[in-house]
Here is the input.
Amino acid sequence: MKSSTANGLSLIEVVAGLALMGTLLTIVLVSSSQHLRQLKAAERKRHSVQMLDDFLASWSVNRFAPETIDEAVQRSGLAATGSFGTHGINEQSSGHPDGYQVELRRAMSPSFDSASIIRLTVSVDAGKPQRLQTAWAEVLVPE
Here is the structure.
């Protein structure tokens, strides 16, 4: 009698292999979509920090004078709103083409009588009416 040996794969082995490959492919696709979201958020944050740095560099040269905010808005590309009024936004434009905007809020410093704290918060449109805060800084400004 001859013994029969299989030269190929059985149907169950093929189906099991396809199921395993499908599972692995699903894991790869989910991971890559999460990675792309994280990459986009990191790029948005990097861009926000760069624009905030440009804004602060321009405004600090003029000793944080409120009348020089327009110059800082021009140099950084950020629209500005908040305690010092609205700058870089008009009826035809909402500021930066990608929706970046800096909000300026002034608060008196509890530790220094002759200074105030200005908090600058950069945000980007995340769908109406929400804004996503992407960067911020606080500056101690003498009066």
